[in-house]
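Interim report to the steering committee. The following record documents the input for ATP-binding cassette domain-containing protein (325 residues).
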Amino acid sequence: MTLAIEAHGLTKRFGSTQALAGIDLEVEQGTILGVLGPNGAGKTTAVRILATLITPDSGTARVAGYDVVKDPREVRRSIGLTGQYASVDEDLTGVQNLVMIGRLLGLSSRGAKARAAELLAEFDLAEAGSRLAKTYSGGMRRRLDLAASLIGRPSVVYLDEPTTGLDPAKRDDVWNMVRSLVRQGTTVLLTTQYLEEADALANVITVIDHGLVIAHDTPQGLKRQVGGQTLEVRPLSVSDLGAVRGMLAAVGTREPEQPAPDLLSVPVADSSALDYVVRQLADARIPVAELALRLPSLDEVFYSLTGGAASGSAPADSAPILQEV
């Protein structure tokens, strides 16, 4: 296994706030690590350390083989960073934004223009390239921002809540772009407040709470760790709800719930409950529109692990960003 990112024992304090209390992170090359955590968990602080924007108080971290403290310049040459908000210059065109970044990264004028044209085409922005960024929609700005982070062909990309504020369709566009990056061999570290985003994209998920890693596994693995499955039945006729409720009560680990007017659900210990209910439904000749046995959702896993719902950036993560020029 080749690690693109590895961190051990990272700590960081801002005044009286302990943002990181000794976290470990590992990201295999060419994969996506989703980093989740509630408000104040330390997600953005960890990204800032890995991007060399701030230094840890203790611990070590290497990105693309380079130490973030001893070799920050080499780390910066290896990474791309897209923050929570689009960082493009609104008074420049799409082309000008990308060319400017290319020149700052040391590309020749011709090379910067060629790379800008390539990325604008890849992100479906070629026709808008000559327009000022201030005329772009939110989704277009996010795409331009992501394109800007790829100008230098980084081997590692940090996406810090990249789809914040986007509607579902635009979010899907960004997801497809992220998948395309990974197919090309890029490693992605993704922090997000959208749990379905982590479920859809991440190969592995790390959950951080109070500056510590409290869980690390694949999305399916995390769901299995929480334990239990949920059996859901939606009869074709609401008149059958009473009979179905009795069937579910016989196999559930607690009383059935009714999350929708025509839907009943109950947690069950194992998949044998499904066989029992299928037989009971057949014997009673009750037709169903939906019958499913599912693992907990990532939202349910998150709540179980942290005791709360996912949310956005934290006060602990709001320390000033300082970058050496």
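Residues 238 and 262 are 6 Å apart (CA to CA). The committee is asked to note this result when reviewing the revised timeline.
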